[in-house]
Design goal:
By secondary structure, the chain is α/β, with parallel strands linked by helices. 50% of the residues lie in helices and 14% in strands. Strands 1-2-4-3-5-6-7-8 form an eight-stranded mixed β-sheet, sandwiched between helices. Helix 6 runs antiparallel to helix 7, helix 7 packs across helix 9 and helix 10 crosses helix 11. It is globular and about 60 Å long.
Length: 432
């Protein structure tokens, strides 16, 4: 019986994550939410490369630096991914040091921001061993280089530690200018795998240039909080958000009546969950909207996910057989184990089932729910939107706008335009 299930699981996971080889990958790309292959046949490599390259619009990458790096990376070669991005990051960092020495602050700052993003990118696939020292090293290099760049460029950035239970959460408070005027504020965090440094690039810079202060933070399971403090994800995200709200309301620079809150990727589920219980925000942005990550997976596994609950040993064995054949699935399982602090795939799937935005009817803030025609978890944003009873807007990015991939990857110019036109209109209106 066990052997009969294994081919079925393998097929479903390959259909879910692609990446078993050129033939299967091309078959996947022909689907309704398929993404064209521009640089890698491995769809995980393709997406992560676009994610890094897309930061170019806000100064977090340079096109030829990225293209030259990609050229040196073999298809699906995770070791080369780390090594080649490290080479590029180190080279660009040296450019920054040379400019800094020459007093060329703008050149130095821009080089440091690019290097910081490349350092973030390089450790992406180092998830098999959460104690791999390269993970800590890459994160520290990214953070230190990012701060160096921001300060060279003259940004008013403050590193802060937000009181959180028996510890603190790491965050940046960035002001668009200095002065006595109280500012509207965007609170932003990532999701399953991002960092606060990355979300400063987008949407943080888009907010700053429009006059918003920005509070970017790493919550449990994310970035510095995970790597340095071993804080793992928790489903009751309002317990994370409320201390953040307490902190920003204590800042004299912030207009406490004009606080917007954005969660990105899995944050598109965490943020609505938190906003259903924490009502001191004026605007909620779910980018992209997500009701349940687990549900999105389970819908395409046709019941096999139930084995994680009924027969975890069997489920783990089957998953172990598939993981070598799929970059995306292998990474998802390994990153999930690290970010949730669980020992195996079955434990991860059981934990994921606890996370959803089922409390969304409790949201009171004006809500913008983003979606894309090539969203990797189709239908989730719409389900979230339908649950919300507060004033709401559903925005679907079409493929013709080049912002229709997950969280507007490589399409941040268009993404920022739509997001902030909506937010500006709301923030300038009288409070309801």
């Amino acid at each position: 019986m066990r052997k009969a299930f294994r081919p079925l699981l393998a097929l479903l996971l390959l259909l879910l994550f692609g990446l078993a080889g050129p033939l299967k990958a091309e078959a996947i790309r022909s689907g309704p939410n398929a993404s064209p292959s521009h640089f890698f046949h491995d769809e995980s490599f393709e997406f992560e490369f676009l994610r890094t390259l897309g930061a170019a619009y806000y100064g977090g990458a340079d096109i030829m630096e990225c293209l030259d790096t990609a050229r040196r990376i073999g298809e699906g070669d995770e070791d080369a991914w780390y090594d080649e991005w490290e080479k590029t990051a180190d080279s660009v960092y040296q450019l920054g040091l040379a400019a800094e020495k020459n007093g060329a602050a703008i050149s130095a700052g821009r080089a440091f921001l690019r290097a910081a993003n490349y350092y973030r990118t390089m450790d992406f696939y180092l998830r098999a061993d959460p104690d791999d020292p390269r993970i800590l090293s890459a994160g520290r290099k990214s953070r230190q280089t990012f701060l160096r760049g921001m300060r060279q460029l003259g940004y008013h950035i403050e590193t802060v530690r937000i009181p959180y239970e028996q510890t603190t959460l790491p965050a940046y408070l960035i002001l668009p200018h200095q002065g006595g005027k109280k500012l509207p504020l965007l609170i932003v965090h990532s999701g399953f795998d991002g960092t606060k440094e990355e979300v400063v690039l987008y949407p943080g810079f888009a907010a700053l240039e429009r006059g918003y202060a920005v509070l970017a933070f790493d919550g449990p399971g994310q970035g510095e909080a995970l790597r340095e403090q071993k804080l793992y994800f928790r489903p009751d995200w309002e317990k994370v958000l409320s201390p953040v709200i307490d902190y920003v309301r204590s800042r004299r620079e912030v207009d406490s009546g004009k606080i917007a809150y954005m969660g990105i990727s899995m944050g598109g589920m965490l943020a609505p969950r938190a906003a259903a219980h924490e009502h001191r925000i004026k605007a909620l942005i779910a980018n992209n909207g997500l009701y349940s990550f687990y549900e999105s997976l389970a819908q395409r596994m046709q019941g096999i996910d139930a084995l994680a609950f009924s027969d975890p040993d069997r489920f783990n064995s089957m998953v172990a057989e598939v993981m070598p054949n799929s970059t995306a699935f292998r990474w998802m399982v390994n990153n999930g184990k690290m970010a949730f602090g669980v020992p195996d795939a079955a434990s991860l799937f059981r934990r994921l089932k606890q996370y959803s935005a089922a409390d969304a009817p409790g949201i009171r803030a004006h809500s913008l729910i983003l979606d894309g025609e090539r969203e990797s978890m189709p239908g989730q944003a719409r389900k979230l939107y339908d649950l919300i009873t507060a004033p709401k807007t559903y925005l679907l990015f079409k493929s013709s706008e080049s912002a229709d991939l997950h969280c507007q990857v490589a399409g941040s110019a268009t993404g920022a335009q739509y997001i902030f036109e909506w937010l500006d209109k709301l923030m300038k209106a009288d409070r309801p």
